[in-house]
């Protein structure tokens, strides 16, 4: 864990001139480098954390061929869902405290259509099930056994999602922890992805195995439209990562989009939503929350409570990690 913290700190400062900040007694506000975030591009795709690099590549293949943003975000996050080395999304995700891998995901398109699944077991690509909910049902969200049954009816294969690695980590956790779900930067790394296609349409996707060692039945923000993800083609799109409870309490992604509607840049809108989280929580220890935003001009940005949040950014001839501003050092 310590290594990962060090790694996170290092990447926060390691990719160019990023840290230009003002300091106050209790916080260390660090703003990202403006130059790289205000230039609008189309098509473009952004996604949370380092695993976004591989996911963006899959999304980009679709966008550069004039494909749709909704196809791009679905195919993009599927890469992370299917990657057993990603311990916080899909196959290989850390289980709940009883040893079950349960998945949450949602997807939203430029017309405001959306679909979601929560507490879904045994299906490797929950984002595709969420898309089927959006396209083939009159509903927005299916959960648990009903979501699983729907997926099987739609032809999705079932699979044991608990890898040997995850099982081992869970068994170690059981020996050392006091059977409490734990929240910190090491055990939650959802992928949220936002894309703008050549036709000027936005879409977003968000998918996760949620907090490691969570209570059985716990659902976070990631499958909740308005919390983990929100898209309004008139304005922009936003997604969240981090402690889902804090994001739900503040309707985070919707707030980010509404702030962009009021004229704020994507980065400013994300910062306002982060500040809202901070103003609503007395104890912010380990309360990492990060937001990403992309407006319909192709401008993008992100902001987090704590240092270390970054995103993968891909547009024509550009494929790189971008660091986000933050309010506090760990
Ligand atoms: C959740 N927001 O289940 C997700 C976890 C996450 O980075 O985003 N981790 O609360």
Structure description:
With 330 residues, the protein is an alpha+beta fold. It is built from 10 helices and 15 strands. The strands form 3 sheets. Strands 6-5-4-8-7-3-13-14 form an 8-stranded mixed β-sheet. Strands 9-10-11-12-15 form a 5-stranded mixed β-sheet. Strands 1-2 form a two-stranded antiparallel sheet. Strand 4 and strand 5 form a beta hairpin. Helix 3 packs antiparallel against helix 4, helix 4 runs antiparallel to helix 5 and helix 9 packs across helix 10. The longest helix has 15 residues. The chain is globular and about 50 Å long. The N terminus is likely disordered.
Short note summarizing the structure:
With 330 residues, the chain is of the alpha+beta class. 33% of the residues lie in helices and 25% in strands.
Overview features:
eight-stranded mixed β-sheet, alpha+beta, globular, disordered N terminus, about 25% strand, five-stranded mixed β-sheet, binds N-hydroxy-L-asparagine, about 325 residues, 10 helices
